[in-house]
Design goal:
The protein is mainly α and 65 residues long. It has one domain (7-61). The chain has helices spanning 7-20, 22-25, 30-61. The two termini are 27 Å apart. 5% of the residues are buried.
Length: 65
Amino acid sequence: MKKTYTPSQRENLENKLIDAFKGEMNTLSKELQQILADDLITAFQNRITVFQRIQTKAKLLTPKP
């Protein structure tokens, strides 16, 4: 199950990440902040996909009582 975000949703998430990590990111230029936020969103999406696959496989391998 791969969820893709619209450009508007992705921008909204980027802004929320920048706000959440403003203390850590305030030394970066606006452009670098946006790049980092975009990378974090992509990494999160990829990680969720991996965990969903692992969970699905675990359910398939778990014997039913």
